[in-house]
Amino acid sequence: MSFWVYMLRCADSSFYVGHTDDLESRVAQHQSGSIPGWTERRRPVDLVHAAEFPTRVEALSAGRQIRGWRRAKKEALIAGDWAAISALGRRGKKPG
Fold first, then answer.
1. Strand partners for 7
2. What integer is the mean pLDDT of 4-27?
3. What is the pTM of this model?
4. Lesser CB count within 10 Å: N end or C end of the chain?
5. Long-range contact pairs involving 51-59 (C-beta distance under 8 Å, separation at least 24)
6. Alpha-carbon span 1 to 86, nearest angstrom
């Protein structure tokens, strides 16, 4: 069995990061509004990033890491711009 970490872009341009063992079904649940919470009020959503992991623990860890990133770093991940991801990581967190 595989596990996925995924990122959705919501209708209000916010991002949602989650994990699942059935990516297609989970995205459909978010799209239909059957999962209460963030995405329910911000539909429609678009799947903008997904990565497969061999264990749930690894998917959870990756999801936690991505959730902590600033918007610019998330957008670099979506674009597959590894140089920007690395550069944004070296700058540290935004003050404030």
1. 17, 49
2. 98
3. 0.90
4. C
5. 51/4, 51/5, 51/6, 52/2, 52/3, 52/4, 53/2, 53/3, 53/4, 53/5, 54/2, 54/3, 55/3, 56/3, 56/19, 56/21, 58/3, 59/3, 59/4, 59/5, 59/19
6. 30
Residue at 73: amino acid letter: K
Q: Which residues, including other chains, have CB under 8 Å from residue 65's CB and lie 6 or more apart?
A: none
How far, in Å, are 8, 21, 42, 46, 62 from residue 37 at the CA level?
A: 14, 19, 9, 16, 21
Closest CA to 63 of 75, 42, 76, 49: 49
Structure token pair of residue 85? 């991801």
Polymer length of the chain: 96
Beta bridge mates, 15: 9
Structure tokens at 20: 């699942």
